[in-house]
UniProtKB/TrEMBL annotation, chains A, B:
<dbReference type="Pfam" id="PF01206">
    <property type="entry name" value="TusA"/>
</dbReference>
<protein>
    <submittedName>
        <fullName>Aminotransferase class V-fold PLP-dependent enzyme</fullName>
    </submittedName>
</protein>
<dbReference type="InterPro" id="IPR001455">
    <property type="entry name" value="TusA-like"/>
</dbReference>
<dbReference type="InterPro" id="IPR036868">
    <property type="entry name" value="TusA-like_sf"/>
</dbReference>
<dbReference type="Pfam" id="PF00266">
    <property type="entry name" value="Aminotran_5"/>
</dbReference>
<feature type="region of interest" description="Disordered">
    <location>
        <begin position="379"/>
        <end position="404"/>
    </location>
</feature>
<keyword id="KW-0032">Aminotransferase</keyword>
<dbReference type="InterPro" id="IPR015421">
    <property type="entry name" value="PyrdxlP-dep_Trfase_major"/>
</dbReference>
<dbReference type="InterPro" id="IPR015422">
    <property type="entry name" value="PyrdxlP-dep_Trfase_small"/>
</dbReference>
<dbReference type="InterPro" id="IPR000192">
    <property type="entry name" value="Aminotrans_V_dom"/>
</dbReference>
<keyword id="KW-0808">Transferase</keyword>
<feature type="compositionally biased region" description="Low complexity">
    <location>
        <begin position="379"/>
        <end position="391"/>
    </location>
</feature>
<feature type="domain" description="UPF0033">
    <location>
        <begin position="406"/>
        <end position="430"/>
    </location>
</feature>
<comment type="similarity">
    <text>Belongs to the class-V pyridoxal-phosphate-dependent aminotransferase family. NifS/IscS subfamily.</text>
</comment>
<dbReference type="GO" id="GO:0008483">
    <property type="term" value="F:transaminase activity"/>
</dbReference>
<dbReference type="InterPro" id="IPR015424">
    <property type="entry name" value="PyrdxlP-dep_Trfase"/>
</dbReference>
């Protein structure tokens, strides 16, 4: 039963399991105690810290273990902001950071701080010089900048080393969230703080990493605690820490070969999906990306139904579509990229994924998508002459009055886009159709549909009960 | 090799180990995902929450899992204080709470809040009505009160139900830190919030509990996160959570019988140690106490040397003596009780402790203590006619001038008390000896020695380089 959601949580690596079992017997005592069980626990903790620090590329005394990647991010950002309170209260983040970073930024804003979100291009990547520009244009002293090493939803690798240089030039520390990439290799460049999460690389849950380079001002905002250099309160989760360090070392040893193999499988998905499934947009940077992750969106498809059908076919994937989120808004990553969010599928291959499973996925996907589309009454695929074929007259005409209006109020993604696609053929070339919708996904997906279909998106305006989106037929 | 420090961390219960192993295979996926691995993880999480809530005595939706007992305390106190910001900013704690509570209180003070520490008697117990008095005398609106269910250093059980009634009458929530007692049974009374730590009952590290009764105002101060009702950010440590819940159920099933058995062993230690070792003070409430924990202090003994010798004899215990703490101050619990801190030993028996091991401990202890005393040049035991015997004249006399002064500046516990004991015989009855000392433990141990020896402690005053402690010879 193929599990293709390693980016959410990777199955436990055999080395992690083995190390965890051994440490359950040897590492349950308090490592701060002086008796033999305590000393044994302390040795295990020290060895785990050395191994993890080596993999991170920092000194052992720069690294602490936290209870999760999220707590590493929360405590790391709060500590760096507090440590640099005198330098200012501005925080710079990219628009496509993990929610833990964006939530920490929102907490900082609620506390009176200010935040810049650096935009990304259509591949999800920040532009060269983007952090330098954000630093220049900051409204006040900048305390901290944050940039992920690679995006968790679309796999795009960020230019961390360049951003770190830009930050260093402005004497501002850069925190790198390396949750998605640390298993594949160390983060390049002159970063100041780094966070990661063990269960993303095949380690156990319950362990995050927070590295703070010597010389970086840092003040813990948690109540005092003597453990983990005072930077992560609470009794050390030692067996899991031992398993995390051991598995990080193990996945690194396999990383080069496995990255190459998975990159080939992902390349196959990237190439084959658009051939096999009509009206698909593969998103993310085609070259500078994580080896194991690929994301695409399918027009006229309900993401939740798609995931459900794939689960029935025994494929476990995730989605950034609005209907799969508790807030019914599309993923902030897809929004920042400006790409289609409906029918979104993220495939992230765990280490050891069999080629045959990827092929089975590629066999199953077209039928699953077609089935969902059929149930939704989606238009026939483009190229099969569906949408435009309804209009026998391809000549430009003056815009007729009144405009065609599609009322999709109260209808959820992907219905507004399906209804738009169904009527576009009735609009003369040069004419305009207005879609009324109150679903948040329409704001992203109607422009994305225009881009994919070669139609002209003319913008939105408020309308009674929702938003009016104007689309001009170009062909 | 007997391990007698269950109060720091209990060895992993076999049921915890078994459940952890099973959940490593079944529970590594993200429980918020909709595919089968996620649904399976969600089922495990829900079942663990139900089991833990039943053991706590609350509804499952009142209980969240945190990464440790310390984080449960920190997040619980911060959330309750924030939720009741309008009611006021005063916090009431007992003077003998766990350091995680006192550190949270200190953080609250640093943030502009105010704190009352409710004192305890010589057994470590708060007085009846003490919380009502603290509520009445609070300098402003009280946001929260905290009281441990039982003390972690001396085992004294607190009158939680009474304190909860006093708080309820004032409409103030009571947070109970049940870390030491939850494995033995639910906390009685009308508490509002409750915290606990799994590795204290034989569960794994990495799991704390935070229960917040419906109707208690609570506002998470952490950045937003959708997991654990927004009250404990970060990916759930699921295998450990499953193991924590399973082992809590298991230890509860064994609790009544095991408590009775361990209570008998502890009773033996309480009775025999003062018979076997001269100049010992057994501390804590003799009746209202945890079944598995006993603490005593040995005059004229260096706690670190004592622990080291016991470790060589293969007994693992802990100590509240100043020399065993990183800050070189005696345990705040012993200080609040006003009992001797030198040569302090806490014995906390894990479940399953063999009677023979306790007897071996009782056999080994007298020789170990005598050895440490001999190396320190301690006076011979009282009753053997040591200290007072040096003075052949028991008649009261007018106080001579100049007083006898012992200069113990620069000397660490237990040396100042040993030097005091050595000279007391040279002081005429009714006369005074002054001890100059700069070791923090002297402030506690000189009065405690006077209490044990029937001498009169007359108080302290600042002196050059330290503090002058006045002792009047009574007999």
């Amino acid at each position: 039963m193929p599990y293709f959601d390693a980016a959410s949580s990777a199955p436990l690596h055999p080395v992690a399991r083995q190390a965890l079992l051994a440490a359950l017997d040897e590492g349950w005592a308090d490592p701060s105690r002086l008796y033999r069980e305590g000393r044994r626990a302390r040795l295990l903790l020290d060895a785990a810290r050395e191994a993890a620090a080596e993999a991170v590329g920092c000194r052992p005394d720069e690294l602490v273990f936290t209870p999760s990647g999220t707590r590493a991010v929360h405590d790391g950002i709060a500590g760096a902001l507090a440590g640099r309170r005198r330098a200012g209260r501005h925080l710079i983040v990219s628009a496509v950071e993990h929610s833990s970073v964006l939530h920490a930024a929102a907490a900082h804003e609620a506390d009176g701080g200010t935040v810049t979100e650096v935009p990304v291009d259509r591949t999800g990547r920040i532009a060269p010089g983007a952090y330098a520009a954000a630093l220049r244009e900051a409204p006040g002293g900048v305390a901290l900048a944050c940039l992920q090493s690679a995006n968790h939803e679309v796999g795009t690798v960020q230019p961390v080393a360049e951003a770190a240089e830009e930050c260093a030039a402005a004497d501002v520390p850069l925190l790198v969230d390396a949750a998605q990439s640390l298993g594949w290799g160390p983060v390049e460049g002159n970063w100041s703080l780094l966070t990661a999460s063990a269960h993303k690389w095949g380690g156990p849950a319950g362990v995050g990493l927070l590295a703070v380079r010597k010389g970086v001002r840092f003040r813990t905002v948690q109540p005092a605690d003597e453990r983990e250099s005072g930077r992560s309160p609470g009794f050390e989760n030692l067996p899991a820490i031992v398993a995390a360090a051991a598995s990080l070392r193990a996945v690194r040893a396999e990383a080069a070969a496995e990255a190459e193999r998975l990159r080939g499988l992902v390349e196959r998905i990237r190439a084959r999906v658009p051939e096999l499934v009509p009206d698909v947009e593969v998103v993310g940077d085609p070259e500078r990306r994580l080896p194991h992750l690929v994301t695409f969106s399918c027009l006229y498809v309900d993401g939740e139904a798609l995931l459900h059908e794939l689960d029935r076919a025994e494929f476990s994937v995730s989605s950034g579509s609005s209907c799969t989120s508790s807030t019914l808004t599309p993923s902030h990553v897809l929004r920042a990229m400006g790409v289609l969010s409906e029918g979104n599928v993220r495939v992230s291959l765990p280490r050891g994924t069999a080629e045959a499973d990827v092929d089975r996925f590629l066999e199953a996907l077209p039928g699953v998508v077609a089935g969902v589309r059929e149930r939704l009454g989606a238009p026939k695929p483009a190229g099969a002459g569906a949408e435009a074929a309804a209009d026998p007259d391809p000549e430009p005409k003056p815009e007729p009055e009144p405009e065609l209006v599609v009322d999709s109020l109260g209808k959820r993604c992907p219905i507004p886009v399906i209804e738009l696609a169904k009527v576009i053929g009735e609009v003369p070339v040069g004419g305009v159709v207005t879609v009324l919708a109150d679903d948040e996904a329409a704001r992203l997906d109607i422009p994305a549909w225009c881009e994919m279909r070669g139609q002209t998106y003319e913008g939105e305006r408020p309308a009674e009960g929702g938003v009016a989106y104007r689309v001009r037929r170009r062909a």
